[in-house]
Write a structure and sequence with these properties.
With 639 residues, the protein is mostly beta strands. 3% of the residues lie in helices and 37% in strands. The chain has three domains: 309 residues, Tachylectin-2, Chain A, CATH 2.115.10; 152 residues, Galactose-binding domain-like (Jelly Rolls), CATH 2.60.120.260; 83 residues, Immunoglobulin-like, CATH 2.60.40.
């Protein structure tokens, strides 16, 4: 490896680098990283400038970032991302580099801005609406979204739509779908384009227009039709609870997040369940021949599901086609420590198979995923093949925040506020747990972390997941950004500058860095220059590439024991092996439809409670490590 610096303290090294014109400090370009080069991959969670919550949001005083309930649509060849309470939205040319546009509709300092918004291109104009139980909210539209300016299509839409979705069919008719309830179904209705009133005799909606209780508001009236409702007694994954294990559900099993996709003349009514705080939060789908149904539960469900790994959760999002015709499914992933609604956004390759079965591939869905450049088959996902190199690797740091008792808001405790002891040591940097993090004692320039991969490995990309520990920022500000440098070495003494973000001014709390060419190294050091808010703190410092050694052998003693008393449940087990860091369990309704997967680290059992009664399944498993993926086991049938 090329040696540029030898036995220099971090501060001296930093000062020398600032003055080194040979390293193109103004541009941040190095031999291995060029910030102006378009990425070919991305990594979940999506790297956008997640907004900080308003002060005392949900009665919780701590500052934290959050967003959820994403909608990505294409408009004039570019991608637009709308999500909960962002004081605006994001656009991108390539689904990787997202640019923020300020466009808030907040009326009072403590109000939500736009919660779970809907967006759709109607008659070549971009339409937008947020969630509300009221009947006085506008429908906005724009033909120039990058301006951040919107006009009102109607001043007062009478439909009290929470978690709305807009859909325009090929015949130009416009529909609204909405609902969020532990008891009631999602509903849909055709609306008049000019007035946005539901079609039909307005007298039939008189009760709706006067209703004040949610349970009355969300019922079908007039031409409003039931679109989808949960059946947790038959569908294990629709059950409430941290592991679909809270029966009866204290507030019901929640259905929300409506979205409509039309494919080959069929209508796919998408929904999220059973609740955003849980690892099993997923997207399901019902299928019909008409935009208002009736709809039938698709046998392959959930259609997007990610209960394991660094990114956990895939529910309440939308499905869209990119500029090449490939489908993608977006969703909400959880952190849920500072607030049970502390969340992020993910996006996975999706599509429809030869039998028109709607699917989403989340296997290795928090490893780098290849961005589209043409139409392609996504039934096996779009993984880059770069493996996780950093799992459980030792890390040394400049300092560590002391352990402390923290008030948490996990739904794992039944929604009660619980004080837990949290420690912020360096082991949290490589544990693949988004709920834990390391924190330095300060946010000063020169705070650092150093990872030892154990041997020289080939490095292609890194992901830095900031934790904003003890942040003081609330709501949106336009001077939020991170700056840092990353060095690599073979001996921890002679260091090479590989990534220079000392001039960065973009908010990137889940900064994904794809190298322009790979580099071989054993040690990696990150040095802080500027932190957005709070202390210099990172959830996981993730490294991707190839370990340049042997892949793991196939798994042995793989078993799926389906519970005879409750066929929604199964205990999955296998023999743990020393050459694997993790396993991916695949399952589906046919040997050629193993679309769903469960990622497991450091264990040899999984308590699976997401099966449907009366459905026969097929399972297999594969191990993985830094060097690649082992061969899948023979597929087994589980009745």
């Amino acid at each position: 490896m090329k040696k540029l610096y030898k036995k220099l303290t971090p501060i001296v090294l930093l000062s020398m680098l600032f003055g080194n014109s040979l390293l193109a400090q103004n541009s941040g370009k190095t031999e291995w990283f060029d910030p102006s080069r378009p990425a070919t991959t991305y990594c979940n969670p999506i790297n956008i400038g997640y907004n900080f919550t308003t002060h005392n949001h949900n009665g919780i005083p701590e500052s934290r970032r959050s967003s959820a309930d994403p909608v990505i649509i294409t408009y004039k060849g570019e991608y637009y991302l709308f999500a909960t309470n962002q004081a605006g939205f994001f656009w991108s040319k390539d689904m990787s580099d997202w640019n923020f546009v300020y466009g808030s509709f907040q009326r009072q300092p403590g109000d939500d801005d736009q919660c779970a918004p809907a967006a759709w291109v109607v008659n070549d104009t971009l339409f937008y609406v947020g969630s509300t139980w009221k009947r006085d909210h506008p429908i906005w539209k724009t033909a120039d979204p990058k301006s951040g300016r919107w006009t009102r299509h109607v001043d007062k839409a009478m439909l009290p739509t929470w978690d709305p979705a807009i859909f325009q069919d090929d015949d130009k008719k416009v529909y609204m779908y909405y609902g969020s309830s532990g008891k009631l179904p999602l509903v849909g209705v055709e609306v008049d384009y000019k007035t946005w009133l539901p079609k039909g005799n307005q007298a039939d909606y008189a009760t709706l227009y006067k209703a004040t209780e949610v349970e009355d508001i969300q019922k079908p009236y007039g031409q409003i039709k039931e679109a989808a409702i949960l059946d947790p007694s038959a569908h294990g994954w629709e059950r409430f609870g941290p592991n679909n294990d809270m029966e009866p559900a204290p507030w019901g099993n929640f259905i929300e997040g409506a979205w409509m996709t039309k494919h080959n003349g069929k209508y796919y009514m998408q929904y999220g369940a059973p609740a955003t705080e849980f690892k099993g939060y997923a997207n399901g789908v019902h299928v019909g021949d008409n935009p208002l149904g009736p709809f039938t539960y698709q046998k392959h469900n959930p259609m997007s599901y990610k209960p394991g790994g660094f990114v956990i959760g895939a529910g309440h999002g939308n499905t869209f086609a990119d500029n090449y015709g490939n489908y993608w499914n977006t969703g909400t992933c959880k952190i849920s420590i500072k607030d049970r609604f502390e969340r992020r956004i993910d996006m996975f390759p999706a599509g429809f198979d030869k039998d028109d079965v709607m699917y989403s591939i989340t296997a290795y869905g928090d490893f780098p995923i290849v961005l589209p450049t043409s139409e392609r088959d996504q039934t096996r996902g779009a993984s880059s093949g770069w493996m996780l190199l950093s799992y459980k690797k030792p890390v040394t740091v400049s300092s560590s925040e002391e352990c402390m008792e923290v008030e948490t808001h996990r739904m794992d405790h039944g929604g009660k506020k619980v004080y837990e002891k949290f420690c912020y040591g360096p082991e949290n940097l490589t544990d693949e747990n988004i709920q834990t993090y390391w924190s330095a004692k300060t946010n000063n320039p020169g705070e650092w972390l150093q990872m030892d991969l154990g041997r020289q490995m080939e490095i292609n990309a890194l992901q830095i997941n900031y934790a904003d520990h003890k942040a003081t920022q609330f709501n949106k500000a336009m001077d939020i950004y991170y700056q840092y440098k990353i060095f690599m070495s073979d001996d921890a003494q002679n260091w090479t500058l590989v990534v220079d973000k000392s001039k960065n001014d973009k908010d990137a709390p889940h900064d994904y860095v794809e190298l322009s060419k790979s580099i071989k190294a054993r040690y990696i050091k990150m040095e802080n220059i500027h932190n957005a808010s709070g202390l210099f703190a990172i959830s996981d410092f993730r490294v991707f590439g190839n370990g340049l050694a042997a892949k793991p052998k196939s798994v042995t003693s793989f078993k799926v024991d389906r519970n005879k008393a409750d066929s929604r449940n199964a205990m999955i087990s296998w023999k743990k092996q020393s050459d694997a860091i993790g396993y991916n369990i695949y399952y589906g309704i046919a040997p050629d439809k193993l679309y769903n997967s469960i990622m497991v680290y450091g264990d040899n059992t999984y308590d699976f409670r997401g099966l449907d009664k009366g459905t026969k399944y097929y399972f297999t498993i594969e191990p993985f490590n830094e060097n690649g993926i082992g061969t899948k086991n023979k597929i087994i049938e589980v009745k």
